[in-house]
């Protein structure tokens, strides 16, 4: 009988033990949540980079196939391309280059626009170019066009009159503000696309 009484008194948790368990569970939950958020940012950035590469490839395929352009009155434009506006832009556009100059101008027709994942924006472009990259960075608009039937890839950066033609460019996307994670899409004038 004395033994049963002793066991009953020692069978429960003390308040200190209970607080330690709650603290450990809270700490593990906070660590998991922080990693989950960072993983979500990386996934959003990666999905945007893959979608950008996919849209470049889609514009290339439209040029090869000599696809009719519905916004152009069902005609076949001289070339198709992809356009990204100045840094901080959150979208890219596939366009029909009606005036065949290798740049997106008001006379050209937007075929479709892709919005990057929430929180992702175009940060910068660098590359191997004929002239130095235009400054300020606000003029670093990207125009990637494809001339059928091969298609020949033309990489132009800037906005008239501050433009340069490149043999290779790297487009950098960023999640969030300054210091946020980045992902890059590299394309050369042979039409090869690489995600870094």
Written description of the protein model:
- The protein is α+β, with helices and mostly antiparallel strands and 196 residues long.
- Helices cover 30% and strands 34% of the residues.
- It has a single domain (30-195), classed as minor pseudopilin epsh domain (minor pseudopilin epsh fold), CATH 3.55.40.10.
- Strands 1, 2, 3, 4, 5, 6, 7, 8 and 9 form a 9-stranded antiparallel beta sheet that branches.
- 28% of the residues are buried.
Low-pLDDT segments, ≥5 res: none
What is the CATH top level name? Alpha Beta
Give the percentage of residues in beta strands: 25-35%
Share of residues in helices:
25-40%
If you consult CATH, what is the topology?
minor pseudopilin epsh fold
CATH evolutionary superfamily: minor pseudopilin epsh domain
Gyration radius over CA: 27 Å
- The tally of structural domains comes to 1
Largest sheet: 9 strands, antiparallel
CATH architecture: 3-Layer(bab) Sandwich
Ordered list of secondary-structure elements with their pairings:
Layout: H1 2-10, H2 15-64, E1 80-84, E2 91-96, E3 109-115, E4 120-129, E5 142-147, E6 152-159, E7 162-175, E8 182-188, E9 193-195
Antiparallel strand pairs: 1-2, 1-5, 2-3, 4-7, 5-6, 6-7, 7-8, 8-9
Structural key phrases:
196 residues; alpha+beta; minor pseudopilin epsh fold; 2 helices; elongated
In short, what is this structure?
This protein has 196 residues and is of the alpha+beta class. It contains 2 helices and 9 strands, in the order H-H-E-E-E-E-E-E-E-E-E.
């Amino acid at each position: 009988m004395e033994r049963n009484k002793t066991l009953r008194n020692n069978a429960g948790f003390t308040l200190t033990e209970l607080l330690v368990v709650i603290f450990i569970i809270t700490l593990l939950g906070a660590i998991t949540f922080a990693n989950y958020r960072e993983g979500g940012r990386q996934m959003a950035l990666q999905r945007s980079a893959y979608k950008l590469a996919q849209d470049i490839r889609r514009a290339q395929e439209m040029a090869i196939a000599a696809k009719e352009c519905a916004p152009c009155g069902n005609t076949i434009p001289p070339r198709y391309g992809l356009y990204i506006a100045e840094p901080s832009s959150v979208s890219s556009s596939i366009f029909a280059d009606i005036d065949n100059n290798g740049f997106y101008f008001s006379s050209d027709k937007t075929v479709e626009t892709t919005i990057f994942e929430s929180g992702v924006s175009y940060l910068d472009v660098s590359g191997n170019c004929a002239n130095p990259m235009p400054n300020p960075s606000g003029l670093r608009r990207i125009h990637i066009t494809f001339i059928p039937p091969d298609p020949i890839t033309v990489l132009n950066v800037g906005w008239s009159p501050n433009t340069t033609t490149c043999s290779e460019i790297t487009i950098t996307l960023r999640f969030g503000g300054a210091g946020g994670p980045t992902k890059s899409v590299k394309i050369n004038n042979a039409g090869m696309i690489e995600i870094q």
